[in-house]
Amino acid sequence: QVQLVESGGGLVQAGGSLRLSCAASGRTFSSYALGWFRQAPGEEREFVAVIGWNPNTYYTDSVKGRFTISRDNAKNTVYLQMNDLKQEDTAVYYCAAGAGGAFGSYVRTARRYDYWGQGTQVTVSS
User: Fold this and answer.
1) pLDDT band at 1 (very low <50, low <70, confident <90, very high)
2) Is a pLDDT exceeding 90 seen at residue 114?
3) What is the pLDDT of residues 15-70, one digit of tens each?
4) How many C-beta neighbours within 10 Å does residue 50 have?
5) Cβ of 41: how many Cβ atoms within 10 Å?
6) DSSP codes joined into one string, the chain
7) 111 FRET partner, CA 20 to 30 A, in 32, 76, 93, 97?
8) Predicted pLDDT at 55
9) 3-state SS track over 100-121
């Protein structure tokens, strides 16, 4: 059974940092695109970043220069290092995995992903 489990969320002051982790199990994800999405209360789920099997990366504009996505295939884990956090980063963060097709198809398109984690809450206070 495939599982994605996020960790590392929490409460942080604006300007602070957090590192999210997403551990995958049930299969080897080295050939998968791994993405992070987030959803704030009352909002739709939003694309944050993706790392491919290449490993190319792509970020939504609002996090460029502040967030870094990376992967450790030996540990079947994807990370999201978040620096200079802002109140508007407050959301539940989800990791997702998908296989097949072009890397570009995983940018912003939630339905492209096959597996999802349960989410981890990130709250940024002023």
Assistant:
1) confident
2) yes
3) 999 999 999 999 889 999 999 999 999 999 999 999 999 889 999 999 999 999 99
4) 29
5) 7
6) --EEEEE--EEEETT--EEEEEEEESS--TTSEEEEEEE-TTS--EEEEEE-SS--EEE-GGGTTTEEEEEETTTTEEEEEE-S--GGG-EEEEEEEE-SS-GGGGSS-GGG-SEE---EEEEEE-
7) 76
8) 85
9) CCCHHHHCCCHHHCCEECCCEE
Token match 């551990």: residue?
23
Q: What length does the chain have? A: 126
Tracing tokens 């398109």 back to the chain, one arrives at: 109
Instruction: With CA atoms as reference, report the closest residue to 96 among 57, 47, 58, 43.
Output: 47
The Cα–Cα gap between 55 and 91 comes to: 26
